[in-house]
Amino acid sequence: MLRRYRMFCLCFVGLGVATLVRAVDYRGGMVTPPLAKPSFTLTDTAGVAFDFRARTEGYVTLLFFGYTHCPDVCPMQMAIIAQALRAIPAEQAKQFKVVFVTTDPTRDTPAVLRAWLDHFDKRFIGLTGSNQAVSAAQAAANLNPVERSADAGEHSYLSHTAWVFAYTRDNLAHVIYPVGIKKDDWIHDLPLLAREK
Question: How far apart are CA 25 and CA 27, in angstroms?
Answer without folding.
Answer: 7
